[in-house]
Write a structure and sequence with these properties.
Layout: H1 12-29, H2 31-37, H3 45-51, H4 66-87, H5 97-109, H6 115-130, H7 141-153, E1 156-158, H8 162-182, H9 191-206, H10 212-230, H11 238-247, E2 264-267, E3 270-273, E4 285-287, H12 314-327, H13 337-354, H14 362-379, H15 385-402, H16 407-421, H17 478-491, H18 497-506, H19 514-526, H20 536-561, H21 575-597, H22 599-608, H23 622-632, H24 638-645, H25 651-659, H26 668-676, H27 685-701, H28 710-728, H29 738-744, H30 756-768, H31 780-797, H32 809-830, H33 834-853, H34 857-871, E5 887-890, E6 893-896, H35 899-905, H36 908-921, H37 932-944, E7 954-956, E8 962-964, H38 983-986, H39 1008-1024, H40 1026-1032, H41 1038-1055, H42 1057-1064, H43 1087-1102, H44 1107-1123, H45 1130-1146, H46 1151-1162, H47 1166-1171, H48 1173-1183, H49 1193-1204, H50 1210-1224, H51 1237-1253, H52 1273-1287, H53 1292-1299, H54 1303-1321, H55 1327-1342, H56 1353-1371, H57 1374-1379, H58 1384-1402, H59 1414-1431, H60 1434-1453, H61 1468-1484, H62 1488-1492
Antiparallel strand pairs: 1-4, 2-3, 5-6, 7-8
Length: 1521
Amino acid sequence: MTSPAISCQVSKKHVLLSEILAVTSVMRKNSRWASGAHTLTARDSALARDLGLRRSTPNTNIQKNGRLSQEADLMGGFQQLKRTIWDVDADIDALPLPALIGPFFALIRSPLSNGPITSAALSALHSFFVCNLISATSLSLELALVELSSTVSHCKFEASDSSGDEVVLLKIMTVIHDCIVTSSVGPFLGDVEICEMLETVLTTACQMRLSEILRRSAESTMVSIVRTIFGRLHTLNPTAEEARLLNEEEPQHGEISMSVSANVIDTGDSLQVSEGLISSTQHNAVSLEDPERSAAPEVEGSSHALSPPRPYGLPALLELLRVLVNILDPNDQVHTDSTRLTALGILNASVETSGTVMSDYPSLSALILDPGCKYLFQLARSDNSLVLQAALRTITTVFQTMRKHLKLQQELYLAFSIDRLAAPPQLKPISSKKNNPTSPRPSTPATGTPILGPVDTELELDKGSPVPSRPPVQPARGDTRDLMLETLSQLCRHPSSMVDLYVNYDCDINCENLFERLIEFLTKGVYPWQYSSASDAQHLHSQYLCLDLLLAFVDDMTARAEGRSEPWPSDFILPDSLIQDKSRKKLVLTGAARFNSKPKIGIAFLEENKLIYSDLSPEVSRTRSLAIFLKSCTRLDKRLLGDYISKPDNLELLKEFIGLFDFKNKPIADAMREMLETFRLPGESQQIARITETFASIYFASGPAEIKTEDAVYVLAYSVIMLNTDQHNPQIRKRMSIEDYQRNLRGVNDGTNFSPEFLQSVYDSIRKREIVMPEEHTGQLGFEYAWKELLTRSRQSGPFLMCNSALFDLDMFKTIWKPLISAIAYAFISFDDDYVIQRAISGFRQCATLAGHFHLPDVFDFVVVSLSQATSLLSENLPTQVPNYPVVEVEGQSVTVSSLSVKFGTNFKGQLAAVVLFNIVNGNGNALREGWTQIFEMFQNLFMHSLLPTRMLQMEDFLGGVTMIPLRGGQHSRPAPRSDGGLLSTLSSYLMTPYGASSDNLVPEATDTEVESTMCTIDCITSCRLDELYAQTIQLDSEALVAAIRALEALAHERTITKWKQESDELTTAFNTSFAGDGTFTLPYDPASVFLLETMVSITCQTSRYIEDLWPILFEHLSALLSASTHYSVLLIERAVVALLRLCLILAQKANQVYVSLDLIAGLPPIVANSVAEQIVAGVTLILQNRDIVSSQTEWNLVFAALRSTTSHPEAARSTFDLVLSFVTDGQSQWMTPDNFNGLITILDEFANSAGQSIMVPQKGRRVPSQPPPNAPPIERGRRSIDIIYDMKRFIAPFAESAGLQTGQVWRQYCLPLALSLGKQSTNPSRLVRHTAISQLQRLLLGPRFVYDENDHGQVEEIFNSIIFPLVDELLKPQVQQFDPQGISETRLRASALLCKAFMHFEVREDRTKSDIRILWIEILDLLDRLINAGKTEQLYEAVSESLKNVVLVMNAANILVPPSQEDQRDEHQRTLWTATQARLERFLPGFLTEVIPTPQLQLPPPTPVPGSTSAVPATAPSTA
């Protein structure tokens, strides 16, 4: 029924004559019409008048019967029309249109016509439209259109065969379509004409008696017409049309109304349809005339009496919309589902065509809002899949075009859809009956309809607090579920849909959190529904739809984050206000949930969060503030609320609560209804009485009419409650009549009766409209009440705000990111469809982008964690022992075929996840926090299987440059001290390449399949660009970098400290333990722990700008390792020391931290320190290149303490000695300060000790020399150390002068330490070192630069007691003699000479004569006694005697040791000293004293002269070389 592309090219006169011929030809074929065809009435009144003749009225008896006359008139009309046409010379456009097509109209309306004749006439009309005979330029068009409308609406013809009759009806549809749609005359039709034609077409489409093809054709015609006429809304003026609708008087041509009926009554061979569609006025006749309009004027003369109509507009459209909406009422038993299906299609077309313009017409919008949406939502529960599909389509169209005005309607529909689509909580699914007895008609929704009322599911988790919830809805299954889910997806797919949901509902305290509920449903919908009875394909489709909608939401949010968003309109509510409302809503919901659980707790929470009692004023008390909240909060349990406010303790609250209602000028029934709709009456009679009494008091105060006392209100209120129960309780069979009600209330109005009219109004109000208490009904009555509440709320809720704004994305994303990413991860792992996987990958990337955009590291971490689990690269139990994997050559490259490489190479989805993961992390490292743990855990696993890039397998060193981290270790015991030096020697027991294979065990062969899988793995790892990510870590911000280092430290800690503690507790398992030489448990070598440590330190060293943040993390780990260094492998500890020293280089400006590290190194056990000595000295040397780093004696002591551990190592000692030598050697490198003076003595002392430690005790039967050659490195260093110590005396004077020290201070700080060191080394097992030390000690003590306070005898005593005496005493010990039996005698000889010379130097002087040196002198004699008796050699005896003789003579010359004389003039000191000396010498040298100093009093023979004793000058000791 579409217009031809090219109009007719012949003349209109030709067309009209041809159609007349065609119609009359068909008429003549019928025997009834044949006779009438030849009856030509020539004596026409017009002809008689023209000729001046009088024409008498023909006698009706002479005429044929009336039927034949009518047939002749119809035929004559065509003959007259032909003559009229022939008389026109030009074209027929000058003739009025009614005259040209009037005969056709008369024939179509005539009941004498049959199907073929009527069909021919209708075809002629169709041709007239095609050839523009009927056009916008035709004369008297409007009148012709009125006749056309009446004609096609009142078409009558005799019924013949059904198919032929339906052809006539089909042609009627064609003519109507031509008139309204395809031709140019449609806009000239009036409202009445449009309604007549639409009623005709709509009735035909709804006639179940007609064939399917005709009804579908009529429906198609109706849809086409509807699209045309509703298209006029875009050109009409809404204001003018609405005004016209309100002000228009009675229409000129009849009432603008339509009615549709599908009730067909078949009476034999005639058709009769009620309410004016197809009715029979004669036997065997078919009519399209409305019986109520059967009295419409016939064609003769009727058209001339009509005035041109006004072009159709809003009235006709409103009437059509009203009819369509009424058909949808599922409780109207007149219409069937087929009729509703037709109406739904037409309604959908009208809304689609109107678009958003329909909202500009309040009258149309009001119909859609109510009852249109009400009926549509009820049909959305239909069991008829066709009706359901059509209803859902119409709903989506309505929301698409009128969403701005349907805020609460959309909330209802979405909540209902989510309830039906969500998985049921019960295990047993709800059974659905096909024919529900409560349904008014088959296949229509039952009386149970969507339950209204906002419910927030998130609060159901708040300590199990009950909240008002809707009754369970039967879940949608099968095709119904797919259809509803598709519809939901269509509704929520526009870019701003989720933002709109969040802004309009989640931020509205009176609405549900629809955004959160929808996301919760969608995320759960991605997972399998274990109770689903749908097929696998259906369920998978459902999962895909949920995922697709989630990903569309993420895609839209990402687009907004990239700048593709809309500005927030200035006339909308401020965004900050909405966000505050959301926060307040969360508090209100929590408070309501707690109130529903326990009112006292809920009120305390509300007060704590200032939701109540914050508005206190003289007018608002605490009780009133609480009452306002309880009345306004829709989330409270109404049953609990009624029980709470009616308690005796809350009487004041009850008064305030009811006092909030405005009962003025309201009938008592309406007042009770308003009050009882806010809470549910409790069941206890006393509580009801309290409520009723309070109501009576407040209502009576409002001054109601006719009620005289408060008691009368009380009784009347009780009567209303009882009447409501009586009239509407289905269990009560005998209802109370008005007479009964009046009788019950007799005399209660202060002793008088209420007027009958008053009680009648109360009775009727309750009887007609039940007081529905909250949560009381769930059926149709409850729905009606809830719908009324929805309409009331909608008047206050405001418009639906729509804006694709990014202002709320952060709050939205923070609310739902975790279940969202989990759902995407599940889909990625579980689904096999390439498109779905691709979308999931895109979703991951977009979530990561949003996490970075919103600065939400937790989200980014969750993305990384989710993807890392999908990669299969995480390993829960990574072994420390790396198996011997085969190594093959592929394209010139050595490839290790490990278990991971083979498994991962066949896991395509894991490879996808890995590539996506690392592509996301690359460049987004700053957004990562906890996710670094998974990243480095995968690195660790790849390292253990030789799959990391070479750059990540290296470890840096002070000595050997860069080397590879070995994957397998040698012996677990610690190696002996090395003598060959260098890092390579440390690793000599390890395989130096991770790609090497051990020859200790057999290596399995790699198959071609395994090699191919391994190559796939390598290609995937290459695509992941791990080296780029590793390189990007040095560009991280502080927070992300700290998180990365913490992750590395945690993994390393788990593989070292934690593992050692675990395994040390399991020593009973023999194969899990090993013991080092000291008997402590030692972990075997773990390459992963070294890898983690090296990675951690490497990153830190390259990000020195953040060393202050990173240092505590690393130091904690390193100190834990080094504090228990004997429990770990050599290489791990060596790497820990290197790491610590490398960090110290960076910490040069943080001296405190440097010295904490050096102190830690200095505390290493000797066996450990020896193994890492080279690293220590290299690191310390580099640290000391910054001379500003050491500034105190304590710091120097820590430096030297760390270096002392290196003096016994062959190679490290050399470097350490060179470093120390540079300090004291003149030149630019000299670094001597008062602070490092004593430290240098200490470290040099250690070198001398090391020389002594190289001396082996001679054993019998072995020809090993006890003393190594003097040029042996340790001996040479020891000797040079002694010389350096002695040479350091030259720095004493400058230091003392610069510091302004006193003599005693110089002695204590500088001289004494030098002498002590030399004295200590004078007993060194090394002969060269020992003799050098004793010689240098003598030079020091007796030299001119030795500073001490001569007046302080205590210092002299300290020289002897702390230096010389211990030296001699040590030389007398047998164990000292064992190291050098041959050279110890000479040492003792030198020591005796030193002893005596020192005594003479410090004590035997004239200024010391008054000093008491007896104790010191006697101790010297004791030591000399021991020396003589220890060696028992002639040489020692003579040397000691000679030295002693010199001392005695000098003491005598100094008048200290004075022999007795005849005139004994000695003082007490002299007498005592002589006596003691003589007594002591007699023990080991009898007569020695008298020989040296003769006593005059004694008459003794002259003593035998002692060789060399003739001079008083002390004899010199043997040369000390």
